[in-house]
From TrEMBL:
InterPro entries found in the cross-reference section: Beta-prop_ATRN-MKLN-like, Kelch-typ_b-propeller, Kelch_1
Signal peptide (from-to): 1-21
Attractin/MKLN-like beta-propeller domain sequence ranges: 26-265
Organism, scientific name: Agaribacillus aureus
PANTHER family on file: KELCH-LIKE PROTEIN 32, LD33804P
Protein name: Kelch repeat-containing protein
């Protein structure tokens, strides 16, 4: 091969690789570490990551990306797990969550609200008795909070396709149309046009099964709710690797879905990316440590994800923090 040809091919390989950069996670060194936990919630607020809840009663812990440091705030008022927290105004809301021990965990009866400035919790409105669940997705859009999916009876039965909208100003709940695929251990992302429900499973226990057989009952369909029409549809492209208990964010016309659990022992580490315009999924990289039961956030052009479980089920609980650069 001539030297000039070699150089051209080398340049092509280099720039091709560069244009297809992988969005892979890297565990970072931090000042302090979060408490090892899983089935917790994470949300970005005031350019910091707030890690909340999980099995047992845990401190709220706050990560500052500018200093790569963690600090502790107060504890949750009781055990809260299996939820996706959302920001409304200057507070953090929890609307679909469990309390109690595996496998018959109990849905919360009320909305719970955390004020980061005061480091205080308060009770919100009562959740209608016939719409209580944990493990659903939640999303703030404008002045409303949407909740979809979940399960009624812990890890035993009652996976549902419900969709509801909650008005924080009035405390009222309104039932909307059911999604096409019932699912729990799911996550919601969206913009002012659509809400997307990704991943999850049907956690239905049957007498002929052992507890844990439901781990493999994951959902690869992605359902989409149209805020204008109030109707659901399903994307033509399935999630390449369907998992439950994963996390997701939506930014710059892309959905990033990562981690989760299935029937395999190790928690998943794939970072799967959906282009809103291309309508295609790609596996773009991986987390350094597979994890489920936690969620990523975006701060300053990077994704951060912390804690979670390294295998399916309850352990090992992790205390590491990963950063994922966005390309």
């Amino acid at each position: 091969m001539k030297r000039s040809t070699f150089l051209i091919l080398s340049a092509f390989v280099f720039f091709s690789g560069f244009s297809q950069a992988q969005e892979s996670g890297q565990i970072i060194e931090t000042v302090n570490s979060p408490t090892a936990r899983h089935e917790c919630g994470a949300v970005a607020f005031d350019n910091q990551l707030f890690l909340i809840g999980g099995r047992g009663i845990k401190h709220v812990e706050i990560f500052n990306p500018k200093t790569n440091s963690w600090k502790k705030a107060g504890k949750t008022p009781f055990e809260i797990h299996h939820f996706q927290p959302v920001v409304y105004g200057n507070e953090i809301y929890i609307l679909s969550a469990f309390t109690g021990k595996f496998p018959r965990e109990t849905p919360l009866e009320k909305v719970w609200i955390y004020n980061p400035k005061d480091d205080k919790w308060r009770e919100g409105p009562v959740i209608p008795e016939n719409r209580r669940r944990g493990g659903g997705g939640a999303l703030t859009v404008g002045d409303k909070i949407y909740v979809a999916g979940g399960i009624i009876d812990g890890h035993h039965s009652g996976t549902i396709p419900w969709t509801d909208v909650f008005d924080p100003k009035t405390g009222k709940w309104v039932e909307l149309s059911d999604m096409p695929h019932r699912r729990d251990h799911t996550v919601a992302v969206g913009d002012d046009q659509y809400m997307y429900l990704l991943g999850g499973r049907t956690t239905d226990y049957h007498e002929e099964d052992n507890y844990g057989a439901f781990m493999a009952k994951t959902i690869n369909k992605v359902d989409r709710f149209n805020f204008s029409t109030g109707k659901w549809d399903t994307l033509a492209e399935d999630l390449p690797v369907a998992t439950a208990g994963a996390g997701a964010v939506m930014i710059k016309g892309k959905i990033y879905y990562m981690g989760g659990e299935t029937g395999q022992v190790a928690a998943h580490n794939e970072i799967q990316v959906y282009g809103i315009n291309t309508r295609k999924w790609e596996i773009k990289g991986s987390l350094e440590r597979g994890r489920h039961g936690t969620q990523p956030v975006v701060i300053g052009g990077k994704m951060y994800i912390a804690a979670g479980s390294g295998n399916k089920g309850g352990g090992p609980e992790l205390s590491s923090t990963e950063a994922v650069a966005l390309h």
